[in-house]
Fold:
Amino acid sequence: QVQLVESGGGLVQPGGSLRLSCAASGFALEYYAIGWFRQAPGKEREGVSCTSRRGGRTNYVDSVKGRFTVSRDGAKSTVYLQMNNLKPEDTAVYYCAAFILDCKVDGSGYWGQGTQVTVSS
Structure:
């Protein structure tokens, strides 16, 4: 059974940090492109990052460059999104997704249920 489960979200003050986890089961992450996405209230879902197959290059949306970093554990079963210097505009539900080829925002691929990140004083 293919499953992706996000965790690590919560409430954090501006300038703080969170690390989100995306745990995979039923398939090997290394064979898939892995994307992080987010959707804020009243806004369209947007791509945050995309890591190419076999742990290749990770691209980030301009708004998070220098603040967010994607990594993977040694067992290759969990992908992390380290978020530093968080801003109120980062508030959103964050999702991870796995794709056979390229990351897409259209709902294709395998998606987790999301984890809420709220940045507020």
User: Anything to note?
Assistant: The longest strand covers residues 18-25. The mean pLDDT is 93. The radius of gyration is 13 Å.
